[in-house]
Amino acid sequence: MRIKERYLGFLASKPLWQEKNSIGLSQFYFDSYAEISSIPENLNIYNPTNEVLGKRIESFFEYYISQSNRYTLIGKNIQVFKEKITIGELDFLVLDTINGKQIHIELVYKFYVYDPEINVEIDKWIGPNRNDSLSLKIEKLKTKQFPLLFKPETKSIVENLKINLDTIEQQVCFMGHLFIPRSLQGHKISILNNQCINGFWIKPKEFTLKAYGSYYFYIPQKKDWIVDPKYCTNWYSYNDIQEPIQTAIHQKKSVLLWMKSSTDHFERFFIVWW
């Protein structure tokens, strides 16, 4: 995938929630989305081939800020130390030039699946491999990442950057893709932004020849999960895709698939290992 297609996927991403509501965290919103026609084919964005998805998202966000007429970057990826040991990192500090406000932004980009068997609604959103969750990430933002700005160890950094702690705003740019069980497709979800529902998930036993044999598939690398499947040019049959799926499931790794019908209709879905 080209860097432009990855960046377009980033720009098309939606915030996981739109108001503070019960989550209690303010979202940073893009001032305006760049016109697709104005984005050059060869973007000048730092993009090493071995870069993980999280770092790639940071590069895209920084590029967006650099191209914005509204925001100015004050600092990024600022590590905070206590006795030479890193105790945390501030993602981005920016200046909103329209209202003169400084903003501390924590950037988060996640893929969550909805497990209806979990009791508490917000806890139902978990990582595809069940090794993280939305509720734990929110708790970390509230108790660790945002308070870091006000710790004594951060004082010298704040002073050097001329940050006013009395007026600075703290926001999270929390974007992502949500996947619900196929049986719940078409249902509205509560708390979160329904525009983030970008696919479904199934168990391995549900991935049958009868249900999926007429489609074509591709397994993107994780760093390309944000890309729109319509840009994919290499598609494989149901039989061709079986081996990598079985290998991943055997290793207890859920698999994200892009699916294309004969009429060029595209979908995303996970086959979960659990």
Question: What would you note in describing this structure?
Answer:
The protein has 274 residues and is of the alpha/beta class. 22% of the residues lie in helices and 28% in strands. The protein is built from six helices and ten strands; from the N terminus they run H-E-H-E-E-E-E-H-H-E-E-H-E-H-E-E. Strands 1, 2, 3, 4, 5, 6, 7, 8, 9 and 10 form a ten-stranded mixed sheet that branches. The model has no long low-confidence stretch (mean pLDDT 93).
Question: Outline of this structure?
Answer:
By secondary structure, the protein is of the alpha/beta class. It has helices spanning 3-11, 53-67, 134-145, 155-160, 209-212, 238-250, and strands at 14-15, 71-82, 85-96, 101-114, 125-126, 169-181, 197-202, 216-218, 255-260, 266-271.
